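Thread amino acids onto this structure.
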């Protein structure tokens, strides 16, 4: 089960493609964000999802919402993936899967990250969740709809 709407999101401190350690509580203090978890860089579904987030990035930026991608891939793999697909947002490396586990974003037994997306409000409480392993584009459409309806 995904994290419940309204609860405070777990802490995140992970290596980022920026070269720094990303800390959710300080780097995005009082800012809403989308955190999407995905199985693996350079796979068809994950590439489609990342590129769809890239293509909709101006919409997220216009709503002042940061976007972050998280998987268990190494930071080196993330940097290649980000560069190859011109991703305008940070990717975070969770090699142990601890953050994925805290967000209930690991497939049981095989411990591969699920495709699950969270919208966190400015207080970093879960405002919306979308989970679907095969509908990569649906994650972006759902989050945009949720954010636009919250702003009307």
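Threaded sequence (152 positions):
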């Amino acid at each position: 089960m995904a994290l419940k709407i309204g609860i405070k999101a777990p802490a995140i401190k992970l290596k980022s493609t920026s070269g720094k350690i990303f800390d959710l509580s300080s780097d995005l203090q009082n800012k809403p964000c989308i955190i999407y978890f995905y199985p693996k860089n350079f796979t068809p579904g994950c590439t489609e999802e990342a590129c769809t987030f890239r293509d909709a990035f101006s919409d997220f930026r216009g709503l002042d919402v940061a976007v972050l991608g998280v998987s268990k891939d190494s930071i080196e793999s993330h940097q290649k993936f980000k560069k190859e697909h011109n991703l305008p947002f940070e990717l975070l490396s969770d090699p142990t899967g601890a953050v994925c586990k805290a967000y209930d974003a690991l497939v049981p037994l095989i411990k591969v990250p699920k495709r699950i997306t969270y919208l966190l409000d400015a207080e970093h409480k879960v405002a919306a969740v979308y989970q679907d392993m095969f509908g990569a584009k649906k994650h972006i459409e759902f989050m945009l709809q949720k954010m636009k309806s919250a702003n009307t």
